[in-house]
Amino acid sequence: MAGSFYSVQSSQEVVVTGWGCVSPLGGNTESTWSRLIAGEGARAPISCIPVEGCRVVEGAEAVMPKIDWLPKKSVSRLSRAARLALPAAREAMVDAGILGSDGRSVFSRLEMSLSTTANGMELGEAFLQGVWAGNTRQQSSRVSRYPAQQQVADLQQSLGFSGPAMVVSNACASGANAIGHAADLVRGGFANIVLAGGFEALCELVYCGFDCLQALAPDDCRPFDANRRGLMLGEGAAFLVIESAVHAAARGAKIKGRIIGYGHTTDTHHITQPDPTGGPLEICIRRALDQAGLQHSAIGHINAHGTGTPFNDSAEAAAFARVFTENSPPRLVSTKAAIGHTLGAAGTLEAVFSLLALQTRRIPPQIKTTTPIPEVAGWLAQPGEVLEKPVVLSVNLGFGGSNAALLLAAV
């Protein structure tokens, strides 16, 4: 089945009416996109968490926006994850015209489909540090705000709505899964409008875990490069307002893009390594194409997962080479070379970048890659490239063999 656990047969057209993001390149969508298109990268020494003793001490910290619409005391209680999620969600709601002048949602009930891997993990880490140091200050607050659903409550309370919320924690495919699930809800008539998003904050557990796996690049992250040496961790958040075309038209909303296909598969190969043949990813992409009713030749650009690790990039390139067999393949880019791998937020950030490419007809350049692997050597996007076709494929892979593919289209 190409969608989520729902058997989706409805013909409801799924559209995007707003988006927002916070990334290592900027505190909002405009600043992030302008720097991404300019070919800038965000790699720098990590300062938000202790990394002494780690093999690698660099990554991509987010540009933290001010949350000046809430009382300072309320903001002080928020986890770093929530401080990333709230501004991105608020920007998306403003963009879609569903946030009132009072800063509250115009809909009292608004479903959410969210993604993350670590939630507010830094609160748990701070609690343990407090225990070890014998410091009881703020410990009760850290415990009470540590549960995995806390960011859901933060979003609902701060932006003035309620409703069902699903949090996908499916490793690095989570963001695309959350968007795909939201699209299935709308396509199947289970919801008229859904706020979908992903958020991820750097934390010691995750950073040191990847460092212990020796998965972090000691220098630049070089996706699809013959000399790639690992990934760069980043953090950020991105949200999209997803609704049916009928619902958007009824409220006079401007449609900014469409979600026309979604596929996902599981490798059953290895807990951390993808199937080296790329076969399950190929099936995933073809499922998205089948749902959209398109041939592969309709796709003009791929925002790849492209972590810069030896196993991921070779498997992903193998799948692409089998799906896209024509002489003029899509222009390929992994934006992780610029903003790092944002884990649970990766799929949502990259979906926003894909929609911006459709809207502006500009493709971010592939940076840091100097010796492309043969399978995609002629595919990588160069500075100043124009998107020639109205469909973009965004792909994400995750630990446990998760594969997710989104097909996004221009209006």
CATH topology of the largest domain: Peroxisomal Thiolase, Chain A, domain 1
Task: Report the biggest beta sheet as strand number plus sense, adding barrel if it closes.
Answer: 10 strands, mixed
Mean pLDDT: 93
Number of strands: 12
Q: From the alpha carbons, calculate the radius of gyration and give it in angstroms.
A: 20 Å
Q: What's the CATH class of the largest domain, please?
A: Alpha Beta
Please, how many domains? Answer: 2
Q: Which series of helices and strands comes N to C?
A: EHEEHHEHHHEHEHEHEHEHEHHEE
**Percentage of residues assigned to helices:** 25-40%
Shape: globular
Describe the structure.
With 411 residues, the chain is of the alpha/beta class. The protein has 2 domains: 14-250, 3-Layer(aba) Sandwich (Peroxisomal Thiolase, Chain A, domain 1); 263-409, Peroxisomal Thiolase, Chain A, domain 1 (3-Layer(aba) Sandwich). Helix content is 33%, strand content 18%. It is built from 13 helices and 12 strands. The protein has helices at 29-37, 72-76, 80-96, 121-133, 139-144, 150-159, 174-187, 204-212, 245-250, 279-292, 310-323, 336-339, 346-360, and strands at 14-22, 44-45, 58-59, 111-115, 165-168, 193-200, 236-244, 257-266, 299-303, 331-333, 391-398, 402-409. Strand 9 (299-303), helix 11 (310-323) and strand 10 (331-333) form a beta-alpha-beta unit.
